[in-house]
Amino acid sequence: MTERQQRKLDHVRLAVDWLGLPSGAAAGRSGAGWEDVHLVNHSLPELSLEEIDLSTSIAGVSLGQPVVINAMTGGAAGVTAINRDLAEVAADLGLAMAVGSQTAGLRDPGVAESYRVVRKVNPKGIILANLGSDATLEQARAAVEMVEADLLQLHLNAPQELRMTEGDRDFRGRLEAIARIVDELPVPVVVKECGFGVAREAAVILHEAGVRAIDVSGRGGTNFAWIEDRRAGVTEADPGLENWGIPTACALAEVAAVGLPGLDLIASGGIRYGSEAAKALALGARAVGVAGPVLLRQQREGAEGARAYLRQLLADLRTAMLLTGAGSVAAMHRVPVVITGFTGEWCRLRGVDLAALAGRSEP
Length: 363
Ligand SMILES: Cc1cc2nc3c(=O)[nH]c(=O)nc-3n(C[C@H](O)[C@H](O)[C@H](O)COP(=O)(O)O)c2cc1C
Description:
alpha/beta; TIM Barrel
């Protein structure tokens, strides 16, 4: 087994360990900031639960539901079954699904099947290809072709790479490479973080480069600094680096507040419940991404566990939407949101108009 293939297996094992920790994302204290984000109860919703329209779109691609199974795996024979299970669930529930970074599949055609299985199981679904932001246009084309993808995710993960013994150390030229791919690729590109958060400054630069979809993927969910420190055998981790990043609610609120025209936002990183997905939509996301919690259920209870978890999340999202009086994702963007505590303070200092968000009155 190559070092890269071993890494794929280590990531799955350690992500599950992380999620099982008492303070981990699965334990009800995500640290993504959702506890500071409050939706306002609407006592007279003129809506029926069945009527709530969950459809949305990202960069012009229509999604039946505003929930994406986010990028996780592929690249080793041992993870093909995970992708097969997740693709089956995505097909059943009509969810978009991203594959994990395809660099391994491009370098070693022997493991390409671990990604292709996602398209085979779900021939009509929305699938996102995934590569690092150092990818070339040729690699981007090949990754899209491998899974017949509808969109391509390019991930940014400098904090993770720097904690990896074998990781990248030179991050120059990424913006230019992204801009070229955005310009030339036949499918839309989503630039995503990996649990460290996109700040408004980075969002502005990406938008200027032509990017029209960003997954802010903030801190508070699966923590790849923690995972890489465990892989590297670090015993006394620097807590400031191991908890590096912008909490998801903060990242989303500050990027949304800039109001960049034509930019579609996805929120991921520590989204575990339907009510949190609803809060993310209210803060301006058009969809949310969920990764680790789905993997955890798949590893413990197979496809059935992942399906039951996501079905509940969608049902709870629908409930939260009705309770705010919003019948659609677009209406969620207009409901009042009250942001308090650390997240409120962060937002205030970073220029978010908290009173305007709290004062919105039209679902
Ligand atoms: C096992 C595992 C592998 C991951 N691999 C990738 C990857 O290859 N590419 C990527 O963009 N993100 C990857 N991620 C990051 C997720 O897509 C997501 O941004 C992050 O886990 C935060 O979301 P969560 O809290 O819902 O897990 C991976 C996550 C997990 C749990």
